[in-house]
Design brief:
By secondary structure, this protein is an alpha+beta fold. It is built from 20 helices and 21 strands. α3 crosses α8, α16 crosses α17 and α19 packs across α20. The longest helix is centred in the last third of the chain and has 33 residues. The N terminus is likely disordered.
């Protein structure tokens, strides 16, 4: 065996190994995150043992947990380690970061001011705080109101990465609001569609400060923390000996403490005992030790969405005032999740059954989070009777009018909308007495009708949803929109609006996408083939290679972009690398420019290369590759992704 053959075999083995390992890792993470079947345990001892096993299997250092019913805490604990370096164990008093669960206090504060007659949920923001900068071209007829801030129906983009990247513990809320208003631009009529935006609740918290004349944290501490019994909760960085360290998904690498720009929306630190008191506050509808702290009606309003199209037409599931409804395993939960660098949290409760839970892990391990969440839910509902299911009706003739292709029409992050609408293409059709929803890259979802315009999810081998989660909308006499709230079971269908598009457009986009992917894969195969020839030191058609040089550069630059994004998918890493001007963010910017330049250069190269100087098959192949590059470049340029600067 000569040396060249050895090199070739070694190279092929390395490439195949990398591909197989990558596919295995992707599949493993997908299964861990989406297909975990909880083991039902019926005792606290069994639950504790199961959670400890999950921590061990997923390499998550520690967890804070509280389970309560209306009578009081059932279990509050900390398991595992709060600090690996110092071998410090977590306990019920250890402070964990709860992320966006913090938003509930903004809603409570606003409702308290409403009760005092100092404002109304329907007040336009410009009336209450004219100094807050935002853009809404429909302001004269559809002003942004306080309710829109809390229900995420402003139409604003989510916070930009440069806002997330600010790490300043001394910045005031007023200064934070003025830092970068560029994300606060309404992309559709306010009060129509829900798109999660951290900026809205931040502005609501600023309004609380302005009305009360107090620092938000001070007001919340006096008004809620002390009466509720959350005696150690704090928005500021606590002493290290009473708080957990935060870790990457590997469960070893430490995250530094991150001081969120808008502290009220997600900076809260709280212990299991704090959160047990907070859960009791919700389950007992504002009553603490027989004293009514706030009216019970507050909680009905908090748990009810009102300002989306679907909510206005009666869909019961949606995002209320910093509180969303989630249908899981035949039960309707209310609450919120939290995601902050180094921590994932959940607070969910069943208001009618009078039981709820909180947990927070000190790692960004999403697979572990989903396992723990499913395990706790299985425990608290093991002896509960499932909620009654709305009876199915005969499907209406109106349903046929809604059959066809749809695209997502309420993006959370606008910079990725061009990709979201393409990869989120969904087909709706009627089969017998069912509605079948088929996302382009997801399995079918089956819905059964409960009225002419509402449908409930009926998954195979799972408990059917007790309430409708999909709504047909008839706006201005046009059947163009569907709103759906499938909760966390399918992230692609979480409180979104779908817009009908012509069948020809959907087919064109699917064919174009398939063509582009095929061309890119073909180009990669050719690159590997060329490398093999080089290793064997065999001469090959030089002009053929020149013809495909720029397409190869274009495809490789695109791979560079996706590789950087994949390597930065963990929230803290994305903020650090892409929210600032760094080698990572600049590489994405440069790679998009190179991609566009390679597309142009490839077309020019084809034009100036005589046909008879290259193989005909390679000439046609280069034209097809260049067409794929050109289509991609035009599409990405249209959505402002060429020259993307994530740090501004």
């Amino acid at each position: 065996m000569n040396i060249n053959t050895k090199k070739i075999r070694s190279f092929i083995i390395i490439i195949i190994s990398i591909i197989l390992l990558s596919l295995f890792e992707i599949r493993k993470n997908y299964l861990l995150s989406h297909a975990y079947q909880a083991i039902i345990v019926k005792s606290l001892t069994g639950l504790e043992s199961q959670l400890e096993n999950i921590l061990k299997e997923t390499h998550v250092p520690g967890i804070s947990i509280a389970i309560v019913n209306r009578s009081g805490p059932i279990w509050t604990a900390g398991l595992g380690k709060a600090d690996l370096a110092n071998n410090r164990s977590a306990n019920a008093e250890t402070l964990f970061r709860i992320g966006s669960i913090s938003k509930g206090f903004i809603s409570l504060a606003i409702l308290s001011l409403v009760q005092e007659g100092k404002l109304s949920l329907e007040d336009p923001v410009h009336k209450v705080a004219p100094e807050v900068v935002f853009q809404n071209k429909w302001e004269a007829t559809n002003p942004i109101r306080i309710v829109h801030l809390l229900e995420n129906t402003t139409g604003w983009d989510d916070m930009h990465l440069r806002e997330f990247a600010i790490n300043n513990p001394t910045i005031s809320l007023a200064q934070a609001i003025n830092y970068d208003p560029s994300s606060r631009v309404s992309r559709w009529h306010p009060g129509t569609r829900m798109a999660y935006s951290n900026s809205g609740p931040a502005v609501a918290a600023y309004i609380v400060e302005k009305i009360t004349g107090k620092n938000f944290e001070q007001y919340i501490s006096e008004k809620f923390f002390q009466p509720i019994g959350m005696l150690t909760a704090t928005y500021k960085q606590p002493l290290p000996e009473i708080t957990t360290m935060l870790y990457h998904t590997d469960g070893k690498t430490v995250y530094p403490y991150w001081n969120l720009l808008y502290r009220p929306i997600g900076a809260l630190n709280a212990s299991a005992r704090d959160m047990a008191s907070y859960l009791l506050f919700y389950l007992n509808r504002g009553k603490v030790h027989d004293k009514q702290i706030i009216p019970a009606s507050f909680f009905d309003r908090i748990e009810t969405a009102t300002s989306t199209w679907a909510a206005q037409e009666g869909l019961p599931i949606g995002y209320g005032l910093g509180n969303y409804a989630t249908v899981r395993d035949g039960f309707v939960y209310h609450g919120h999740d939290g995601n902050i660098p180094g921590a994932l949290s959940a607070m969910q409760y069943l208001p009618h059954e009078g039981i709820g839970y909180f947990f927070s892990i000190n790692s960004n391990n999403r697979a572990a989070f989903n396992k723990i969440d499913a395990t706790i839910r299985a425990y608290i509902t093991c002896n509960l009777q499932k909620q009654s299911v709305e009876p199915a009706t005969n499907i209406s003739e109106k349903a046929d009018a809604y059959s066809g292709w749809y695209e997502p029409n309420s993006p959370r992050v606008n910079v990725f909308y061009g990709l979201e609408r393409l990869f989120g293409l969904t087909h709706i059709n009627v089969q017998e007495n069912n509605l079948i929803m088929t996302p382009l890259f997801e399995k079918n979802s089956l819905f059964v009708p409960v009225s002419d315009t509402e449908f409930r999810y009926a998954p195979a081998n799972e408990s059917p949803d007790p309430v409708p989660t999909l709504k047909f909308l008839n706006k201005n006499g046009e059947r163009q929109f569907i709103q759906i709230s499938l909760g966390l079971r399918n992230p692609a269908l979480l409180h979104i609006t779908l817009k009908h598009i012509p069948t020809w457009l959907a087919i064109l986009e699917i064919i174009s996408l398939a063509f582009i992917v095929l061309m890119y894969l073909s180009m990669l195969v050719y690159v590997f083939y060329w490398i093999l020839l080089k290793l064997r030191k065999k001469s090959h058609y030089g002009k053929d290679n020149n013809l495909l040089l720029w397409p190869a550069i274009g495809v490789l630059s695109l791979i560079t972009i996706f590789t950087i994004c994949a390597a930065s998918s963990e929230v803290g890493i994305a903020i650090e690398r892409l929210g600032n001007l760094s080698i990572w963010s600049f590489s994405i910017f440069s790679a998009t420019i190179v991609f566009a330049y390679a597309s142009i250069a490839s077309a020019i190269t084809i034009l100036i290369t005589p046909k008879n100087s290259v193989r005909y098959s390679m000439y046609i192949f280069s034209i097809m590759i260049t067409m794929g590059l050109a289509i991609s470049t035009l599409y990405l340029a249209y959505w402002s992704l060429i020259g993307l600067r994530t740090w501004i």
